[in-house]
Amino acid sequence: MRTWPQKRPRQAGRFLLLPIVVLIGCGSDELSSPTAQQLRGLAAVYLDFAAAKGRGPENEQQLLRHVANVPAFVLGASKLTTHATESQLNSERDGEPFLIRYGVGVSQKHGRAAPIIACERKGKDGTRFVAFANGEIACIEASLVESAIREKF
Question: What are the extents of the domains in the chain?
């Protein structure tokens, strides 16, 4: 029969490994890439909607309608425009539409503890960009993202 203190080192090891994998996955220049900027803009619009309504948009049409009414400063340096189309919701790295988890609320959790609201469908070189419900953007090993979205999307 195992006791809690014996399990703790194994669990702690798994949580310590995640930041290492994340750091190996992408360089800091990747987080300023066009795809990261695009996802950052998408997350900003999503969170702007969630702040006003209490939850993220329910579907793509609601998201695109909201983009049309968002002030330019919210869009920032993203590739989104107030005349957003479905093609603007595609990753430049993999050419695929972003996977978006609709209806998620704004999160006060820090870092990667917040729920994922969007990510690349395939990514590149074994990594995917991910947007969290607190506005953070990260580049994470694709297998870790896959296991997270399997149960959430």
Answer: 4-152
